[in-house]
Structure formats: C-alpha cells, structure tokens
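W.,

You were right to be curious about this one. When I first looked at the sequence I had no strong expectations either way, so I just let the prediction run and decided to look at it fresh. Below is the sequence, 206 residues in total, followed by the output.
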Amino acid sequence: MIIYSLYKDGGKMSKVSNVILMLQYLENGRKYTIKELSQKLEVSERMIRLYREELEKAGIYIDTIMGRYGGYVLNQSIRIPIRKFTKEDYDFLHNLKLTGDKQEKLNIIADKVRGVYFDSKSENIELKDQIKNSYNILTRAIKEKRKVRINYYSFTRGNQDRVIWPYDMFLYNTGWGCAAFCELKNDLRHFELKRINHIELLNEKF
C-alpha cells in the first residue's frame, strides 16, 4: 500500500527505494537530522524533505523536532515491505549480454537490484568475508594514517572509484561504517562496508 501510494503520485521506483530506505533508518525510533539522512542516502537535503512529503501523502507522518538539535522522528509503527532480491538475481542480470540501448537499460535494472540486495539484512558468507576484509584494512589505515582506494556502490551513481582518508569506524543499525574524507567529494562522508566492492591500502599517508 505504501509503494502503491507513492508510485501513483508520480514517484519513480528509484525514489520509492530511497523512501523505503529512509523509513528503515527511522523505524528504530532514533532522531535523525536532515543532513544525516541526506548523507546516508547520498541525496540532497531537499530530496529528504521531498521524501517526507511523499510519505505524508501515503499516510505516514514523521514528526519534526525544531531547533539546533532537531530532526526527524518516526513515532508510529510501520510495516516495511520485505525486499527479496538476492545476489544471485543481480549476478544473473549483470551477466546477461544485450545490444545497444537494451544493454544500458539492463545495467540500470541490475544496479537497482544490487541496491536492494546490499540493503538486505540477510547477508551471505561471501559478503560477510568481504566486510571483514574491508574492516581489517580500514582499521589498519586509521592506525597508520594511510589513504585507501575503494570501489564503492552508491544508490544514485552506481559503482565509483574513490580515494578516502579513514578517520573512525562506527556501527550502523544495519552494519559497520567508516567515517572518512573523500577526495572525490572533497568532504567528509560515511561509507557502509557492505557497499565496498574492492579495497586497496595505499602507501600514501594523510
């Protein structure tokens, strides 16, 4: 019903996916600032406000706390739809070969499936091993103040190569993350370890 209401009102499926992800962050009852949500979803603060408006159209009301320490809080129980895409679904689509515009469209669909898979709370052994390797490299980089090159999956831009300066590790409600300066964005960013495809510890220090 949530998805139907949002889609009927003109939202694209990518926006619906982001709205559901925003709900998953808020469902634990914690207060998030608009800036925190925009960083987690990698969209503008204006889009976060738009997502809130879309949720209200679907009958889901998010409380706004005003002031310096304000933010968004969800004070009602929401049943979020279970997303059932798997890594095998992504691999199947990713390995298909078409021609021309059809291949480009297929790649977009595969990226959407990948985004849903990486947000799933049920991670297979391969992904857990990948996270463990990323965790070990990042903690070493923090200790030795060394830069790290990663290939990172963004819901809005797909896979991107980035060089980061890791500062601290922290635990999301959905897994481990790393606070780091991103040379590509020239700003501090939070990186979820489960979205790191490849990681390399560099000799260059920061």
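Here's what jumped out at me. Residues 87-118 form one domain. And, maybe more interesting for your project: The chain has seven helices and seven strands.

Coffee later to discuss?

I.
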